[in-house]
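User: quick one, fold this
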Amino acid sequence: MRHSTVEPRRPRSRVASTGRVAGWGGGSPGEDGHRPVRGPAMYQSHRGDVAPKEQRVLCIAAHPDDEVLGVGGTLARHAAEGAEVLVLIMSEGEAAKAPHSRRNAARRDNAAAAARVLGVHRLVMGELADQAFDAHPFIELIHPIEALLREFRPHIVYTHHGGDANTDHQLVFKATYAACRPLSTLSASVEQLLCYEVPSSTEQAPALPHYAFLPNVYVDVSAVWATKLAALRCYAAELGTWPHTRSIEYIDALAVKRGGEAGLRRAEAFTLIRARVGPSPPAAPDAPPGSADPTLRS
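Assistant:
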């Protein structure tokens, strides 16, 4: 799968902490002039040598706007607290028959604008066709994720919930899980692997145990909620009107509900798939890129 780094039209240049990635200024104001508010550290790293301001965070999304709907407030918090944030969007959101259409260009612009609002340092976009991820060999979904694990060495990885109603979301979860297998040196840096929910997909899944989203991590996004809303407005064409589950009203109600579950005003909820406590495991020989456990291919 080809992918490219998308740059905003007028970036505020900043050299990332690794010295390799030039990015966008964290805390860029949204339409209402709101800037992300710094708060207490959201996660205390399990490694004593990695403070929140030195963390590297990778968010993997299937389509433009998934990253904001599911984890936008949390990404804004990470960026405001000094972490380096990278977002990989696997698809521009359009059909393969028009991979370079004007609508795709608009989606790239929208994604770049949302990334600026959230304070994301780098945005990488792939060219998979919307709702056609299953037309590609599974290994092609794993390759771009492994490439970023190798280059970026993230400490925290966010990806889709494997039980979402959207098949593309399911495949992105499987590809992320395969790429982050714990015995690979590619994923040796990963301390936490978490799944997020996406309104209009997660809650639309069948009411069966296999599909259930069972959150066990809640992130307080009260202080950055205006930032998330500003980022969502960058995707105005993708939003619905109440009572649609992609409406601002529903998204806000979901944040209030998740917050109430954890004693917070507003929260984003996650399922923690794996957390490692202690030092990195001993280095193990790498399998060839994309050589996932074959049991994950079904």
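User: anything notable?
Assistant: Helices lie at 66-80, 102-118, 138-152, 167-179, 225-233, 248-261.
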